[in-house]
């Protein structure tokens, strides 16, 4: 039996996310600033620039990857380029919700990183949940193959 689920330590290394406060894990805060305010903080762009690009996809607010990609290419601040790229990876690869968009929930998680809260436990839990769903689906399809 091979265990394909990365450990907390492996996720920490893969995401280059230092475990600053091991006892603090991500949980949604009671007060969450508006999506556009978080994007302003992450990108250092104006309110007008942000609000012009926010889209409604289903029930969530998102910003298109295309806008973030264009910003990465021209942003004068190297650290902010990395922050916007990291936000994009979280939204497009680790927690995808709307194809080609980064949604509000990802900005909430990303905002916690500045506070020293690690998302590794949340990512690991999401991985277990996804793998569990795949396992259950494959168990339900096995009787069909016995025919």
Automatic annotation (TrEMBL):
InterPro entries in UniProt: DUF7745
Pfam families (alphabetical): DUF7745
Transmembrane segments: none
Protein name: DUF7745 domain-containing protein
PANTHER family xref list: AMINOTRANSFERASE-LIKE PLANT MOBILE DOMAIN-CONTAINING PROTEIN (PTHR48200:SF1), PROTEIN, PUTATIVE-RELATED (PTHR48200)
Domain of life of the source: Eukaryota
Classification lineage: Eukaryota, Viridiplantae, Streptophyta, Embryophyta, Tracheophyta
Organism: Gossypium aridum
Sequence ranges assigned to domain DUF7745 in this UniProt record: 3-139
């Amino acid at each position: 039996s091979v265990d394909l689920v990365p450990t907390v330590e492996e996720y920490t290394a893969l995401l280059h996310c230092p475990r600053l406060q091991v006892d603090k894990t991500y949980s949604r805060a009671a007060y969450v600033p508006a999506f556009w305010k978080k994007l302003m903080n992450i990108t250092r762009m104006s309110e007008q620039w942000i609000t012009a690009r926010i889209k409604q996809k289903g029930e969530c607010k998102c910003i298109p990857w295309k806008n973030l990609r264009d910003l990465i290419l021209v942003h004068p601040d190297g650290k902010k380029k990395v922050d916007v790229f990291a936000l994009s990876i979280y939204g497009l690869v680790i927690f995808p919700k709307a194809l080609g968009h980064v949604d509000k929930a990802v900005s909430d998680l990303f905002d916690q990183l500045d506070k020293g809260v690690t998302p590794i436990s949340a990512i690991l839990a999401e991985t277990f949940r996804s793998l569990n769903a795949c396992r259950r689906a494959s168990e339900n399809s096995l009787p069909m193959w016995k025919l």
